[in-house]
């Protein structure tokens, strides 16, 4: 969900076109290419699909407030979204037909504990019990994220949400309820989704709720872009580790589950062989991924961040060091694309700097096929599957090869104003296939990746794009009140790969797609 927008708000968009011909897509992938026990799934998040925003006791999150203030480019909101709250049984059936091992979803904190702390909403509790039980009745594992951007508005109003350390206690208490109520059946937990994105989007550029930033980094009524992104990420890190500690001390022995955190993981490569650019790419990776990962694995922020951000980067006390270091059973990564960068030391000459200036890089290009030229054939994101391999290699070499779950990977199409749901999405099959082929090779080369989830199961309300970008392997007609689901070619392709029970006949895939493009 945090896809191309990151480029547009993080960096000036600048697409230079590298023409890379010859993706090899001929050898058909099969489940047998992957280790036994490897998990294949698909994902969504609560606010993005559930709808029923004011129903059965749910109260607003910061995203409801943001959308209702008309802040989305398409002026949309997720009051109804894909209506999964009412259609979860139908969706679980689709998952079963596709042959998924697992479904990644999130619990909406403002549905379960509408005021952020205190009273549990019995209807919220019932909904997640129903969903979990429905999944298990088909043998589909629930992989549950506790916090996926949707902070209860009550906590934002009361103490400025993530800016306050009170958030850590309230989040831990909410997690306690989740483990207690659902942990007998949920064995895979993620504390926080994309803390690196939320800190940046909400507190540096102000493009996300709660829209905090300062001049000249964005146009907000309050905030401080030079300090708040670092403070918020720090609080998310402490909240994460507090919840992991709780799980380990109180639940893990009995419930036997695993817990981790999920980070947006763009891969960065140097634009040239110049050592400055090579260092810049590494710096970008350290700022973007190491920001959260380095403390969790090694107990400290990356040295380069400390050097550049200085005292704006909070210190990890001795006590917190002990809590944070090692606070994971697996690392979740959301990976969509690779960016090539050049060094831009002039950024550091600015006396007033935000996180982006601290990074001191400039985008050279988004590594890709030439999108403009091939728009006719390829929609959505550039395909650079080797970027995933390099990313996994980075985890292997620098972070002790932790167990990894690829929690998001997928490709979008722009909504077509004349056609409520597209069905043929060969571009998406091409994307998924190439990334899975790269994953196959990485695993055989020693990567400890244990699962892969397509983003997304069904079309969602997309963060910052509303309903104008679609990622689903199942399409949703948002224009019809029934929010009817449609099986895309990619769902049939995935079902074929996974040995799904239904919907696989008629699987149609132009295996010569890439070849044809190369010949144009
Ligand atoms: C998976 O990797 C193995 C080992 O490198 C290779 O033989 C096989 O062709 C790969 N499968 C696909 C579909 O790429
Ligand atoms: C900031 O927002 C205000 C109110 O929406 C608008 O009038 C102004 O033009 C914006 N300034 C910039 C630099 O975008
Ligand atoms: C941001 O916080 C820093 C440190 O407290 C302070 O020096 C700076 O003036 C603040 N900037 C704004 C725009 O408030
Ligand atoms: C769906 O509805 C929106 C607004 O209600 C409209 O702009 C759009 O053209 C419709 N799309 C289709 C494919 O009917
Ligand atoms: C395979 O692993 C080795 C050792 O980590 C590394 O040097 C090599 O680059 C890797 N190859 C690929 C294709 O990732």
TrEMBL record:
SUPFAM superfamilies: (Trans)glycosidases. GO terms for biological process: carbohydrate metabolic process. Residues 1-28 form the signal peptide. One of its GO terms (molecular function) is beta-glucosidase activity. Pfam families: Glyco_hydro_1. Keywords: Glycoprotein, Hydrolase, Signal. PANTHER family: BETA-GLUCOSIDASE 11, GLYCOSYL HYDROLASE. Belongs to the glycosyl hydrolase 1 family. This is Beta-glucosidase.
């Amino acid at each position: 969900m945090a896809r191309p927008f990151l480029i547009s708000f993080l960096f000036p968009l600048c697409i230079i076109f590298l023409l890379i011909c010859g993706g090899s897509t001929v050898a058909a992938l099969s489940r047998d290419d992957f280790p036994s026990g490897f998990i294949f799934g698909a994902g969504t998040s609560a606010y993005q699909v559930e709808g029923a925003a004011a129903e059965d006791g749910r109260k607003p999150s910061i995203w409801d407030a943001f959308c209702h203030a008309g802040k989305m480019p398409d002026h949309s909101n997720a009051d109804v979204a894909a209506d999964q709250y009412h259609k979860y049984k139908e969706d679980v059936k689709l998952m079963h037909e596709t042959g998924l091992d697992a479904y990644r979803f999130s619990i909406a904190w403002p549905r379960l504990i509408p005021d952020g702390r205190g009273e549990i909403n019995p209807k919220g509790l019932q909904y997640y019990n129903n969903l979990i039980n429905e999944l298990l009745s088909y043998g589909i594992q629930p992989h549950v994220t506790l916090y996926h951007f949707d902070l209860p508005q009550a906590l934002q109003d009361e103490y400025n949400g993530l800016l306050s350390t009170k958030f850590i206690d309230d989040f831990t208490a909410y997690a306690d309820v989740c483990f207690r109520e659902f942990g007998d059946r949920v064995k895979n937990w993620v504390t926080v989704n994309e803390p690196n994105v939320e800190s940046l989007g909400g507190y540096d550029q102000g493009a996300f709720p709660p829209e905090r930033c300062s001049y000249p980094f964005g146009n907000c009524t309050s905030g401080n872009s030079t300090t708040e992104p670092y403070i918020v990420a720090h609080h998310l890190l402490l909240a994460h580790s507090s919840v992991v500690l709780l799980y380990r001390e109180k639940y893990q022995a009995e419930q036997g589950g695993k817990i981790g955190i999920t980070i947006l993981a763009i891969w960065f490569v140097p634009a040239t062989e110049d050592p400055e650019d090579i260092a810049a790419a590494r710096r970008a990776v350290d700022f973007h991924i190491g920001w959260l990962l380095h403390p969790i694995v090694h107990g400290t922020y990356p040295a380069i961040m400390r050097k550049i951000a200085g005292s704006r980067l909070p210190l990890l006390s001795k006590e917190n060091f002990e809590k944070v270091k090692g606070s994971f059973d697996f690392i979740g990564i959301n990976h969509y694309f690779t960016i090539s960068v050049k060094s831009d030391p002039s950024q550091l000459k600015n006396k007033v700097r935000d996180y982006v200036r601290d990074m001191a890089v400039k985008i050279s290009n988004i590594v890709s096929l030439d999108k403009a030229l091939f728009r006719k054939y390829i929609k959505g994101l550039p395909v650079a599957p080797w970027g995933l391999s390099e990313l996994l290699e980075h985890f292997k070499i620098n972070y002790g090869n932790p167990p990894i779950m690829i929690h998001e990977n997928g490709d979008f199409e722009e909504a077509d104003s004349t056609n409520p749901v597209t069905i043929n999405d060969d571009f998406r099959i091409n994307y998924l296939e190439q990334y899975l082929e790269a994953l196959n090779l990485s695993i055989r080369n020693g990567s400890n990746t244990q699962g892969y989830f397509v983003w997304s199961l069904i079309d969602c309300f997309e963060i910052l794009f509303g309903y104008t970008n679609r990622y689903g392997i199942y399409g949703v007609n948002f224009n019809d009140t029934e929010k009817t689901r449609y099986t895309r070619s990619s769902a049939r392709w995935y079902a074929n790969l996974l040995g799904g029970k239904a919907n696989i006949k008629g699987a149609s895939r132009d295996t010569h797609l890439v070849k044809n493009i190369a010949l144009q």
